[in-house]
Each structure stands twice: as C-alpha cells, then as structure tokens.
C-alpha cells in the first residue's frame, strides 16, 4: 500500500495530484487508511497526531501529493453585540473546553443545543451554518493556526 509520512503545510508551493475531502474530526489523525477523492488508496502514517488543515498536502511515498480539503459541517456562527461581548463569549466557550474557530467578528463551534441555549442566555446571536471547521489548535498544539481577520463565506443551513 502507498504510504504517506509527511505533510506539506498549506503555505508551501506544491502541485496536487488529487484531493481528499474530510471533516475536522477526520482530519485529526496520525495513522489511518485513507482514499482520496479520485480513488488513490494510501496509509497515512505520521510520526505524531496532527490536525490536517485546509490546503495542506499529504505527500505520498511515490512523490504525489494529495491536497486536503475541509468538508463543510453543521456549525453555529456565534456573534456578540460588540468586540468585548464576543471576547466574553469566547471565554465562556473556552471554559467549557469547546473547539472553536475564531474570526474578527464571529466564532464557529460545533452544533450543540445545550451550548446554543447558554449562548442565547448570554445574549449572543447564534446562527446555524454549514462551513468548513478549522478550530484553533490550543496552547499546547505543535501546529498552531492563526486566523486573524480572514473571512470565510458562511452558508446558512437549510433544514
């Protein structure tokens, strides 16, 4: 079986032979049999567990690179009344150890009805969205990803 032991960070220049579309939990791996979107079967066999980010490249031992695509997931977009309120909401989510993707004007989290009720009780605006989820790595993560004010289009969920 083809093996993949290295990852090219999304900032590196590479030409992808194929893509693999995964949600956030599927992208948090060390060792797993995988199949690219075009049918390339390979064994991901990294030295340590890491979160594969949107745009990273998985280098196969035959030299080809498979580009990682983040799959849209059902999330909440959380907005505050102002920057200080959003910061307070982020603190409450962090206090509950929730994975979160932080933007300048909103936070993305996985849908969880109990959290929705808590956030609404804190006067947050909570919107159901479908979007790729690329949460912060945490203080002890080896591959920290900074989001800053980058914008990603959000698509309202249709139930």
Automatic annotation (TrEMBL):
Q: Does the keyword Membrane apply?
A: no
Biological processes, Gene Ontology terms: protein folding; protein-containing complex assembly; urea metabolic process
Matching entries from InterPro entries are given as: UreE, UreE_C_dom, UreE_N, UreE_N_sf
A Pfam short name: UreE_C
Principal location listed in the UniProt entry: cytoplasm
Q: Region Disordered: what ranges?
A: 136-159
Cellular component terms per the entry's GO annotation: cytoplasm
Where does this polypeptide localize? Cytoplasm
Function in brief = Involved in urease metallocenter assembly. Binds nickel. Probably functions as a nickel donor during metallocenter assembly.
What is the name attached to this protein's record? Urease accessory protein UreE
State the species of origin. Answer: Aureimonas endophytica
Instruction: State the encoding gene.
Output: ureE
């Amino acid at each position: 079986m083809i093996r993949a032991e290295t990852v090219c960070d999304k900032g590196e220049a590479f030409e992808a032979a194929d893509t693999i579309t995964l949600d956030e939990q599927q992208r948090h791996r060390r060792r797993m049999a995988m199949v690219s979107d075009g049918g390339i079967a390979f064994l991901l066999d990294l030295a340590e567990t890491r979160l594969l980010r949107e745009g990273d490249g998985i280098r196969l031992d035959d030299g080809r690179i498979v580009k990682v695509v983040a799959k849209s997931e059902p999330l909440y977009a959380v907005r505050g009344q102002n920057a200080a309120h959003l910061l307070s909401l982020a603190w409450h989510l962090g206090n509950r150890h929730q994975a979160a993707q932080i933007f300048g004007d909103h936070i993305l989290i996985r849908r969880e009805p109990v959290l929705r009720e808590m956030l609404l009780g804190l006067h947050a605006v909570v919107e159901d969205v479908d979007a790729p989820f690329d949460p912060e790595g945490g203080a002890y993560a080896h591959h920290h990803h900074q989001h800053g004010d980058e914008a990603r289009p959000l698509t309202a969920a249709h139930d």
